[in-house]
Amino acid sequence: MHSLFLILLLLSQVISGQVQSPFSGLENQQRAPKSAYPEPIKIIDGPVHVRDPTLVYDAKGQQYIVMSTGNELLYLSSPNLTGPYVQAGSVLGNASLISSSYNPWAPDVTLIDGKFYVYYCVSRFGTQDSTIGLAISSSGEESSFHDLGGLFSTEHGNISNALDPHLVPGGEYLSYGSYFGGIYLAKLNSLTSIDQSSLPGIKIADGFPFPNAIEGSFIFHRKPWYYLFLSEGQCCGFNQHELPEDNTTE
Ligand SMILES: *[C@@H]1O[C@H](CO)[C@@H](O)[C@H](O)[C@H]1NC(C)=O
Ligand SMILES: *[C@@H]1O[C@H](CO)[C@@H](O)[C@H](O)[C@H]1NC(C)=O
Ligand SMILES: *[C@@H]1O[C@H](CO)[C@@H](O)[C@H](O)[C@H]1NC(C)=O
């Protein structure tokens, strides 16, 4: 499969309520040549596989923390952004309150007012039987996270999939979605509660048909724009020589 890549979208209109087709005009965006970007740095060595990583700087502990899919959400740390990171345990410690049969995936960590919020999901691979949950900690230390369990769920028949949560800067929305239906913004009542009446939320990016489905949304804010990153494609056989380049959109 050749088309696993990141797409950059301009989202401020969507977030302010003027929903447009998020892909219109994308083909006209200027893209820098591949040569303009440095090679990625390898920051984790050894036998640890880090999938769906999320990273936060813990100023008190003077360390960078990486969390990822794996066991009860892998927890790695390093005093240096560029690593090396060592595995220090897991975020949840025990099975998620959502399910003891399925592992939690795709953590998303944000530090707000001294508290660490880790949104994550639990799902059955290839289905919409999915739940987005939350664990919080006031120190960020391994084993210090308190699991609050599920915030909301999807099942067969829903148009979205409660997977790959991400807290949108500003704390008012959680972006989420994988394959089924694309990427959505679910409204938060507070950092620990979803506005259930607003579900499935605002659709911000359309799911492509297989094998080019989208998932793994990540949004950052740099005024005046919100930028959405996501991944497109399907396992397996990623070819790094076939990344999009210049004005190519595929
Ligand atoms: C962090 O890593 C960089 C790059 O390897 C290195 O130059 C620097 O000395 C490291 N800093 C610390 C505090 O280890
Ligand atoms: C894990 O579960 C055990 C038994 O229910 C409990 O005593 C322990 O505090 C839990 N640990 C965490 C990190 O939640
Ligand atoms: C899934 O469908 C149920 C039943 O219609 C609904 O109550 C729930 O809010 C839906 N979930 C989402 C995330 O849309």
From TrEMBL:
Record keywords, A-Z: Glycosidase, Hydrolase, Signal
The keyword Hydrolase belongs to this UniProt entry's keyword annotation: yes
Signal peptide region: 1-17
Known pathway: Glycan metabolism; L-arabinan degradation
Listed name of the protein: Endo-1,5-alpha-L-arabinanase A
Site (described: Important for catalytic activity, responsible for pKa modulation of the active site Glu and correct orientation of both the proton donor and substrate): D164
GO MF term list: hydrolase activity, hydrolyzing O-glycosyl compounds
Gene Ontology biological process terms in this record: carbohydrate metabolic process
Coiled-coil parts of chain: none
Protein family (similarity comment): Belongs to the glycosyl hydrolase 43 family.
Active site, UniProt feature: D52, E215
TM region(s), chain numbering: none
Domain of life: Eukaryota
